[in-house]
Amino acid sequence: MSDDNTTDGTVHSHRDGPLLRLALDRPARRNALSPTMIDDLVGALTAAATDDTLRVIHIQGAGNDFCSGVDWVATNSGDNRARTGDLVRRIPHTAHRVIELMHTIQLPVVCTVRGWAAGMGCNLALAADFTIAAADAVFWEPFLARGFSPDTGSTWLLPRLVGLTRAKRLLLLGEKVEATDAADWGLIHQVTEPAELEQHTEALLTRLSAAATIAFGLTKQAIHHNQHTTLPEALNHELFALELACRTKDFKEGLAAFQQRRPPDFQGR
């Protein structure tokens, strides 16, 4: 990963037991994502997807903001201006891959949002399983205001989270959404006072780190898959997931804990 956080920025990756902490570090640009940072995210999430010792992923921004989106100014000025067709070739393997990995990885993904979550930064928060935001945080999809159409999954995520009418307000009118409204709409998991943000985040991370990780991943996969299927197809998908979950050590521990009337001690196995 890059060490130059004054120009390209970096994504700091820190292993904390079963928890992977990722920090977007480019505070002077409100953590606007450079190509280097996006590559860092793709690499970290790809590695996490096959790491059986991980149980939860946490993403946050350095400084006062979460992420102000992709740094389009830097990547489309001077000699850096993309040639025709570059977006179609490149973005599926970079920015879009980040969202896809967050959405499909069979681990819980938690985002902590302070300040601005704009553009791809907003969509990172939407793609997470749980996003906790400070009360003064702002979510914004500024694509049309900049003269181009949305990307990084916003047209897929928003209608599913808040419905078509609100999705059009956010994408077509470019309305900003304060954290309290975002929580009321179901756009994010929780809003809290800024001073309590870390406390609530750590409590959720602790809870998820102790969960039945394989069952969580199978359930997450089923929720996403079954948005697009009939009821019989959804029931069949659930059945095969249940067959796998029942073969885990955590399933046996859950049964034993229930019989012994004690909290389960899941190991993510």
Question: What topology emerges from the helices and strands here?
Answer:
Layout: E1 10-16, E2 19-25, H1 35-49, E3 56-61, H2 72-75, H3 86-90, H4 95-104, E4 109-113, E5 116-118, H5 120-127, E6 130-134, E7 138-140, H6 154-171, E8 177-178, H7 179-185, E9 190-192, H8 197-209, H9 213-225, H10 231-245, H11 249-260
Parallel strand pairs: 2-3, 3-4, 4-6, 5-7, 6-9
Antiparallel strand pairs: 1-2, 7-8
Helix pairs in contact: 1-4, 4-5, 5-6, 9-10
Structure, explained:
It is a single chain. This protein is an alpha/beta fold and 269 residues long. Helices cover 45% and strands 15% of the residues. It has 11 helices and 9 strands. It has helices at residues 35-49, 72-75, 86-90, 95-104, 120-127, 154-171, 179-185, 197-209, 213-225, 231-245, 249-260, and strands at residues 10-16, 19-25, 56-61, 109-113, 116-118, 130-134, 138-140, 177-178, 190-192. The strands form 2 sheets. It has a 6-stranded mixed β-sheet with strand order 1-2-3-4-6-9, sandwiched between helices. A 3-stranded mixed β-sheet has the order 5-7-8. Strand 1 (10-16) and strand 2 form a beta hairpin. Helix 1 (35-49) runs parallel beside helix 4, helix 5 packs across helix 6 and helix 9 (213-225) runs antiparallel to helix 10. The longest helix has 18 residues, at 154-171. The radius of gyration is 19 Å and the shape is globular. The two termini are 30 Å apart. The model is unreliable at 1-6 (pLDDT under 50).
